[in-house]
Specification:
The complex is a heterodimer of chains A (207) and B (485). Chain A is built from six helices and four strands; from the N terminus they run H-E-H-E-H-H-H-E-E-H. Chain A has 207 residues and is mainly alpha-helical. Helix content of chain B is 73%, strand content 0%. The chains are: A mainly alpha (207), B mainly alpha (485). Chains A and B meet through helix 1 and helix 3 of A and helix 2, helix 5, helix 6, helix 7 and helix 8 of B.
Chain lengths: 207, 485
């Protein structure tokens, strides 16, 4: 390759970059964008109560989409991951509740389909706080979730999470702090974090 | 290829330096100002990590906002701007072209600074996206891409229209960096904005960060090293072949990196594996580069004591080696599960941006600024202070974050130990990081002051060609004696 001429250099660079660009990024992106739901068979449908996997409609409720924006704008993803690794890559599933409902035997690693329909998968940057992939199964009531945002140390004195007091406003009517619409949306979002749906037997996708 | 510079060469260089003066100085000073902002934000984010309860009720002082602000200011405000300044000057010098439209570039540079300011403020105000280094609101991404291209596109006509026959290896690195960044940035921006494939969007963001380091910062810094080291040593680079091979190794493998962060994530297993092995191949590039530079400097290492440019560049290259070695070590299957998502990896990011890239760029700045302003740095003592404060600061920062990462990872990999233990026992090390940021901030405030003095010291510019002789602080450069093409 004659790199002394400009187009030789640009062509060489383009060839070097085109391979990873196409095969590592663009093609996998397109194939993920074509994700299709797989039906449960009759037996599974009975047990799970769902008809297809992935079925995001059951996980979106309230203002969880707006809540995702609050989650992003507060920078939650800098401390919290939403990615449960299989056991070969880390002991995530041995932490109680991280992989999902352990008691029901549903704990598992996260798969691409689990993020189906979300605008962006907040896989995370660091793990300064707990993994939130299945926090909707660990903290199940709105009150408890609000308390967690308002005063995290009331759950664990060693918690490193700051209080998100600014999401709550003082109300003269009730004489106490009440959640703002942002806090309600964030709680909707957090309660919707349930990434342990049973995988249909018909689903042959590699997880 | 070292030949005596003729009178005409010297005059030509002076003209080139003069044509680049305003744009390059503009980028350098505004970058240095952003660097100071970034280090202060870095200090506050470290402080908040250690003491999360600090300023609890205040929405604008949360770690989740300060940390991304710090990263954006550090990368877009400091690293990219300083890198672009170096790129323009180096390309003009290497291709022996005067920089045209200098004032236009300065005007576009103002737009860039405004964009960075808007990005930082919008994260502060709560419009961040929690996407590392792409945190600004989505509508800003195309603007960043366009402004970047408007600033850097001038490198291409210079390279195409160069007069000297052979191409110096630094030019490859610069053209590569100039072209690769918009490609990666625009790809990541488009894929994220499509909102069609969430996990691949996350992957493309991580791919962008990794490529920013491996195929923007690394080539710009290596272009500097391949320029500064032969200049100071006053002899041609030891092996052009090695330098070329190292370039192509980097070009082939850097595009494959990025997934190593998401080992065990929701991707086919071959993707993180491919990224991990690409990092190992990049080690080869590092070995070749360092061997090449070391052979060039052979038995002239004494120059380290007198030349600030060489000293900073060599330190930057040292951190480059450390960075790539640690990156390669951190993806060994035995340790990766523990180190993933720990301070270790965020420490490595800081090592790349501050330790490796910035130190090399400081080296370039110490070389370039006297030439374009026509006056010498005001004092040798302040250069020494800048060097040692930065070096000790970055070493403290890195060691603290790496140890914090090991501690955190160790606790995280024992599921029987309460989760918060990993936080409590690792963040005590972050105190060191906070102190280190203060050291770095102090050194950079000093540097910014020196740069500002150079900036306003225009009255002291010499009449003739910018021939810098060794002055009081022992700034030895054989600029007039040798020309390394």
């Amino acid at each position: 390759m004659n790199t002394n001429n400009f187009w030789g250099l640009v062509g060489g660079l383009a060839i070097c970059f085109a391979f990873p660009w196409l095969f590592l990024i663009v093609k996998p992106f397109k194939s993920e964008a074509r994700t299709v739901a797989v039906s449960y068979n009759a037996e599974e449908r009975e047990a799970v109560g769902l008809s297809v996997y992935p079925d995001r409609s059951t996980l979106r409720f309230g203002e969880s989409d707006f809540g995702a924006k609050v989650y992003a704008s507060e920078g939650c993803a800098y401390c919290h991951t939403q990615m449960v690794r299989p056991t070969y890559a880390g002991p995530d599933m041995w932490r109680s509740g991280w992989g999902g409902r352990d008691a029901a035997g549903l704990a598992r690693e996260t798969r691409p389909e689990d993020y189906y329909g979300e605008p962006f998968a907040f896989l995370g940057y660091q793990r300064l706080g707990q993994d939130l992939s299945n926090v909707g199964h660990r903290i199940t009531t709105r009150e408890e979730m609000h308390r967690h945002l308002y005063d995290p140390k009331s759950f664990d004195a060693d918690s490193g999470m700051p209080k998100y007091k600014h999401l709550y406003k003082w109300s003269d009517v009730t004489g106490k702090y009440v959640p703002s619409s942002r806090a309600e949306a964030l709680v909707d979002y957090l309660l919707s974090r349930k990434k342990d749906a049973k995988i249909p037997a018909a689903d042959k996708r590699n997880g | 290829m070292t030949v005596q510079a003729t009178e005409e060469d010297i005059r030509e260089r002076a003209l080139i330096d003069r044509s680049t003066r305003f744009p390059v100085l503009f980028f350098f000073t505004s970058a240095a100002a952003w660097l100071f902002v970034a280090t202060i934000l870095g200090f506050f984010s470290a402080l908040k990590l250690r003491n999360p309860g600090l300023w609890d009720g205040c929405e604008f002082l949360g770690y989740g906002r300060i940390f991304p602000m710090h990263m954006i200011a550090l990368v877009y405000g400091w690293a990219l701007q300083a890198g672009i300044g170096v790129m323009l000057w180096l390309m003009a010098r290497l291709t022996r072209h005067q920089l045209k439209y200098g004032l236009g570039i300065v005007a576009i540079g103002h737009v860039w600074n405004a964009l960075v300011a808007i990005a930082v403020i919008s994260i502060w105000a709560g419009f961040g996206r929690s996407i590392p280094l792409l945190d600004f609101p989505a509508w800003m991404a195309p603007l960043f891409a366009m402004v970047y291209m408007a600033m850097v596109v001038w490198v291409i006509p210079m390279f195409k229209g160069r007069r000297s026959g052979s191409v110096y290896v630094s030019e490859y690195y610069l053209v590569g960096a100039a072209l690769w960044f918009p490609w990666v940035f625009i790809t990541a921006g488009i894929l994220i904005s499509q909102q069609a494939a969430p996990t691949m969007a996350a992957a493309s963001a991580s791919w962008f960060v990794s490529n920013l380091i491996y195929f923007w910062m690394a080539p710009v810094a290596l272009a500097v090293a391949y320029y500064i080291v032969p200049k100071i040593a006053d002899r041609p680079i030891y092996s052009y072949q090695w330098a070329k091979y190292a370039f192509w190794i980097l070009a082939i493998f850097s595009g494959w990196t990025g997934f190593q962060r998401f080992y065990g994530g929701p991707y086919p297993a071959w993707m993180p594996a491919a990224s991990g092995s690409a990092v190992v191949f990049i080690l080869l590039c590092v070995v070749m580069t360092i061997a090449n530079l070391a052979m060039t400097l052979k038995d002239k290492t004494k120059l380290w004591e007198v030349s600030p440019s060489l000293r900073f560049t060599a330190m930057g290259m040292f951190f480059f080696v450390v960075y790539v070695c640690f990156s390669a070590l951190s993806i060994v299957p035995k340790v990766q599960p523990a180190l993933q998502f720990s301070f270790f990896l965020s420490g490595l990011d800081t090592l790349a941006i501050y330790g490796f890239f910035s130190m090399t760029i400081f080296g370039a700045m110490y070389f370039i600024v006297p030439r374009i302003t026509g006056c010498e740095w005001p004092s040798a003592a302040s250069i020494r202070n800048h060097f040692w404060f930065s070096t000790y600061g970055i070493l403290t920062l890195i060691i603290c974050l790496l140890v914090a990462g090991l501690t955190q990872g160790g606790y995280l990999s024992q599921p029987d130990i309460l989760f918060s233990t990993s936080f409590v026992n690792s963040t005590c090390w972050v105190v060191g990081a906070a102190i280190a940021w203060l050291l770095i901030a102090a050194s950079n405030l000093w540097f910014f002051y020196q740069l500002a003095l150079m900036f306003v010291g225009r009255g002291r510019k010499s009449k003739g060609p910018t021939l810098i002789h060794s002055s009081g602080h022992g700034h030895v450069q054989a600029e007039g004696a040798a020309k390394t093409v």
